[in-house]
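so im writing up the methods section and need the Glycerate kinase record in one place, dumping it here so i stop losing it
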Amino acid sequence: MRCVLAPDSFKGSLAAAEVAAAIGRGLQRVLPDIALDICPMADGGEGTLLALASAGCGQLRTATVHDAEGRLRPVQWLQGAELAVLEVAQVVGLPDVGASLLAERHSGGVGELLRQMLDAGCRRIAVALGGSSTNDGGAGLLAALGGRWLAADGSQLPPLPASWPPAVYFDESGLDPRLAGVQLEVWSDVGNPLCGPQGASAVFGPQKGLLAQDLPRFDAALQSLACALLRQKPGLPPQVAGGGAAGGMGFALQWLGARQQSGAAALAAANGLAARIATADWVITGEGRSDSQTLHGKAPALVAQRAREHGVAVSLLSGAVEGSAALSEAFDGCFSLCPGPASLADAMQQAAPWLEQAAEQMLRLRLAARRQAC
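--- predicted struct ---
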């Protein structure tokens, strides 16, 4: 039997490669000679760089930039032969913030890292969006690239939209001229627009600390940002899909000319997922928590789609699985690693041994079903 193991990371617990390794150990308890193809996945968020590096898509490099709260920190980026990749979660990741308010954080470090990648000669750069702690619409990113945010009287504003006056202007004359010669891509599983009821502030703001009473102010600030940018360079639809990704960085990057694509699909193309599945007997994927949102651009959904295209059975093994008929239709069995009632802390701490145990039982069930069919 040949099995492709293509999980996403279990955020805050295990990297995708560690998840796959634990599943593999469980399978080998039953079939020591099972052929395992470890294929770590990601959807453009946390873990994208490690998944690409493990697939041999480039070398990890280190740079020093400012995080969302203004502290200098070392971060990694990936340099390949033709493509370089920046992971937003490395720079302004939500788990890294301290006691700051959302209004005080900005994405300037992402722009700093983009400039360092330009210094390194990169001419095709993908920005993996997801897991950000910011909601600044990319104001900090654009400022770090040389742009200036201005009030009506011409005074310069900090890249913190929540503190801006109603009328704001953007001076693009100082933007790094090398951007014109770079092919930019944004990788994301998010199709939300920048503003409105499905926008960055309304949908993703609460998990970053945005209070309900502050939502109108934050949403209005992002609308002002969009107006300022489109006043300088029109053409981008104000409600462009994916504009709300990473606190609105998706909009700023698309305004710069970046092309948006599915992060999971981009990674699958890079690691040759389809060809690897085509020769497999079984595929196992998973993530920290699966629910109805899994089927909207998440890595397990992409893995399941590729498996279906090749007629290969595909099972889901996640930290938690919230009941969904749609999930049951997409996968040949949905399994949670938890052997019984457990707290989130316990599940995260015991993820590796529980994955081994669950994978072992999944294979025993599959083999028993095969014997019955014969």
